[in-house]
Amino acid sequence: MARGRRTLEALLAVAAAGIIVTLAILAWFAGVGRSTDSRPIVEGVPAGERKELLDRAGERTRSARDAARRELEQVEKGR
């Protein structure tokens, strides 16, 4: 009986160590403790420029979207 108890205690200790290591790795990859004063890896696009880019992309694709919408409406009517 004592041997089973020692085995159980050893298994619990290994499991607890695994949990601690897992939490440490998660914290490391999440950036816990890192300073936030560094520059981002990818710079964002300013709001005004972003709106302009989206508007231009919308204009370029408008005819294709309208054609697809008309085709879908015809398919739905044909059912």
Supply Rg.
29 Å
Query: How many helices does DSSP assign?
Result: 2
Segments where pLDDT lies below 50 for 5+ residues?
Answer: none
Mean of pLDDT? 89
Q: Into which percent range does the helicity of residues fall?
A: over 70%
Distance between the termini: 74 Å
Proportion of residues in extended strands: under 5%
| Domain count | 2
Q: How many E strands?
A: 0
Overall shape: it is elongated
Q: What sequence of helices (H) and strands (E) makes up the elements? A: HH
Q: Would you tell me the structural class of the helices and strands?
A: mainly alpha
Please outline the major beta sheet: none
What key phrases describe this protein's structure?
about 80 residues, mainly alpha, 2 domains, 2 helices, about 0% strand
Summarize it:
With 79 residues, this protein is mainly alpha-helical. The chain has helices at 2-30, 47-77. It has two domains: 1-30; 50-79.
Plain-language structure description:
The protein is mainly α. The chain folds into two domains: 1-30; 50-79. It is 76% helix and 0% strand. It has two helices and no strands. It has helices at 2-30, 47-77. The longest helix is centred in the C-terminal third of the chain and has 31 residues, at 47-77. The relative contact order is 0.05.
